[in-house]
Each structure stands twice: as C-alpha cells, then as structure tokens.
C-alpha cells in the first residue's frame, strides 16, 4: 500500500475544508472556534483510500490548511511534507491574494505535482466557469500546475458534481508520486501535541523520511530529550510501524506534553545535531523587494518557525526573482538537513518573500574565503553523492572527516555512507585513516609534514637516533588517527623506520663529528677494559673533549644500543662484562647450586659496593633467585 500526502492550498472561504469532507467524509475542522466562525484556523487532517490505475491501493493523507492571511504561518506548518497539492479556487471568486501566496509557497517548497480544483461550480453558470478556467490556465502556465500536464477539475462539494472525476485524477497523480525511501533516517516534524486518556502523551505529524517502529527510542529536537515509542497509529489505525509518507501518531513514554510543541522534530536517538547555522541557496519572489545582507526574516521549515539573519555570500543584496547562496543564522536551534526546503517571510510586515533549500547544516566555524564557500555550495547544490562526500572531506583538510558524522551531515543511512566512502577510497579519490577520511591532497600534506618534522629533528639532534612517536605527533599537530595512518604508510614505503617508540627517517642514523666519535670510543673502551670493576660514569665523561650535553647524548646512544647497561642509579657496565658474568655463574652451578655474597665476591673479585647491585641485576634477569641470605643459581 502506497502512502501519499495531499495538501490543500487556496484563499479563505474557497471551500478547501468542504472539499476534503466531500472526498473523505471527515471534517478536518476540529477546533470549536473553527466550527463557530466557519473558517479553518489551524491545520486539519483526513484520509482516503483509492485504487490506482494499476490496481494498487493508494492511502491518501489530507492536510487541510487555513486560507486566511493571518493564518499563513499555520498553513506553512502543514504544507511542508506534502507530495501533491490541491490548489483550490472558488469559481465565484477566481484568483485571490492567498491563492497567489499559497501557490508561491508550493513552488518555493518544490512541490512537483498537483491538481487545480475549481470549487463552488454550482454557484456560477457555464460561461462564467469557462472564463474562470481561462484565467486560471493563464495564471498556471509554465508552472508545475501547467494545464498542459496537470488537470483542472470543476467540482461542487454541495451537490457532488465532479467529485468522481477528481478522485480519478487524484488516483492518477498519486500513483505517479515516487515512493519514499523507508530505509532512510527517520524524521517526524511534530504538528500536534495532546494527551489521550489511557495512553498519555501523543504527537502527530507527517513522517517525511524513514521508518518509526513501536518500542524504538527517539530523540526530540532541539531539546535532546530521549523518548520511547509506546504505540504507533497510521491514519487512525494501530500499526507496528509507520513509514515515510504517512500521517503518523505516536504515543510517547518518557516525556510530558509540556516538554513538546509544534515545530519540534523526532529522529533516531544520538544520530543528528541541532544547528544555529545553515548554508542555503535561496530565491526571491518576483513581487518582493530586494533582500539586503544581514536582513532579519521569518524562516519556516516543516512545522518549525524561527527568526533568522540572512548573511549573503558575495553580494550586498539580492533582487526580486534573484537567487543567491547565503547563511541563515537562526535565533533558535533546529534540526534541518541538506535537501530540506524552507520559506522566508519578511520580518515586518509579515509576507512571503522567498524560500530555498538547505545545502549544508554543518558549516565550518572558522572564516573561509567567500569564493571557496560558494564553490563548495555549488557542489552541494548540484553534485553527485560521490562529489558531495569528496567535497565535504576535502574542506576538512588535515583534520579529516569522521565516517560516523556522514549520516547527520549528508542525511544518509550509515550503510550508504560507508559504501560511498569505500568506493571513493578504492578509486583513490579519498584516503582512509582508521575512522577518518582525508582528501589525497590533505593526506600528502600531512605526510610531507611528518617527513619534514622528522628531518628537522635529525638536523637539530645528530647524536639522537630518533624522535618518539608522541613527540613527532605533537610537533605536526595531527590527530592520532591521521598521524598513525600517515606513519603506517611511510613505514610501508620505507621512508621511515621504527625502533620501539623511536621514529627515524630511513638512512638518517646518528651522525657524529670526529671528536664525538672519538669520545664514544673512549667511553666504550673505558668500560670494556674495566670488566666488573667499572669506573664512575662522571669520571669517564670528565676526561672527554666534548661538552657535557653531547657526552650525555653519546652515553644515551650507547645505552639504547645496549653496548652499555645501567644496572643501578650509579653503575654502568659494558655488555661483554655482564655476558662474561653470566657464563661464570653457569660454570659455578656445576660446583654448587647456591651462592652467598662472600662466595660471589671471591668469584668475581669485586667489593660489596659492586656485588650487591650485580646480584640484584642477576635476580632481575632470572639468572639467580634470592632465598634468605643466599642465591639459588637457576
């Protein structure tokens, strides 16, 4: 069963509500004041099932909107999610001011399909009806309701004349509406909030995308409140789920009616982010005045309304009929995504002046050249999904674009975002560093920085064999994911070498001057010749030709290469001496499996000053094990 949302539009008292009742049998005027005054004040709802031309069952949800100029803001709250419009024009009055404004709003919201309905046909004669039809045809020519491809149907809600013809036209047009993607990320703009006895908090709205299921957890935007769906109704019937294109009522747990209001949005928990800024493409109506940079306007999108400041990109004002890229700075946060349409109304007096489409709901905070922003927005407006993702990644530079941000930033299911990313990585158009995506240019820049920083370190520290990974990352100011992604690539290409935690450029080992090489040899010889009766390190260093800092670096190098081994705070031994000690202990084990300090001193010829640290070293190396005052030779 296909679900299609039908909206009414037209001047006050042109018979919109009566038409909906004649078609569906449901009175969409639900408020007492509406019935008393005989006008629609707020949006109302009804539903109807028809058979399509191919026998498919079509479930039509009607959104009936007020026609009075004072209630255009309520009309806007209802018209945002419609698939097709019934433009209602009374045959006894023809085209009126709100006919024009409602029609402009539908065009600005990019409604693609509709039917023009000439109501109250029973009040005029045939000649008058023909004249009105000609006026309407002229008015609609060149629009999405052009009579060449969109029907004009004369009806009387009172006598029923033309209703069958209208239903046939509705079935035909509704069947042409593309099916919405039920696998997309769900969003339900709230248009009504009330309490139902025995159930609690209930909200209604037109599900504009995705699927909402019973027991699912949702988030209320912009408040961030977490709620659970206790029950689902679609067009007044209990259901396990609602899908895109359906009028939906949700019974919510975890929230009161006081915490909800028209204009809020329900969406999957922890997926989207509200925003105060939107980069958009906007257009003005022919009848309006020029719109100046930094003008304040009323912005309407789905059921929400807020004040916004218009920041025009590259121009000081936009003329009537003009189009321009701009940033909307909202007075209140909203959940809007790329592709969402909106309406602009003048701040005062409040009249409709234009509208547009959201291109980017996550503009970068720092200032960028206007030409760069406009180039980016042109891709957002007309680019393929691959081009859009590549552009969003590229603008992040070396910071990278996190894959988990793609659903919210691009209004894509996570699986589709992953598929796009994998495709672009495989084609070499993006580079993946763990969960981050980078453009090839940004990755090459980061790669060059790592190599350059490593080279500078070697130049400044010729006696140090490498820089620690963390120090190198801090100096390049790269995120861990980008840094380690670059590091892995450079090691794979053999541009860098890794030794433990130290990183060095390939072929860039320690470079010593003659006096440094001589000093290194002197230190090594001093400890090699001393055996186990080693001199104090400070005494060895004092006899060198190099300064203290360079001498210490040479010692660090010898310790890193394990030529020298430090076994206590004050004692350093040559590795050959310690290797010889191990051999002597192995030989001693053939005589006795135990050794005390006195026997160890006799065996090695060292004093207690050396014996205790050496035995503790042998314990750590699992050559011996202390048992009381003796050592067990292992």
Description:
This protein is an alpha+beta fold and 634 residues long. It is elongated, with a radius of gyration of 39 Å. Helix 11 crosses helix 12 (469-476). A hairpin with a 2-residue loop joins strand 34 and strand 35 (630-633). It folds into 6 domains: 2-176, 3-Layer(aba) Sandwich (Rossmann fold); 188-268, Translation factors (Elongation Factor Tu (Ef-tu), domain 3), CATH 2.40.30; 275-360, Translation factors (Elongation Factor Tu (Ef-tu), domain 3); 383-429; 441-505, Winged helix-like DNA-binding domain superfamily/Winged helix DNA-binding domain (Arc Repressor Mutant, subunit A); 514-633, Arc Repressor Mutant, subunit A, CATH 1.10.10.10. The strands form 9 sheets. Strands 7, 8, 9, 11, 12, 13, 15 and 16 form an 8-stranded antiparallel β-sheet that branches. A 6-stranded mixed β-sheet has the order 2-3-1-4-5-6, with helices on both faces. Strands 17-22-20-19-23-24 form a 6-stranded antiparallel barrel.
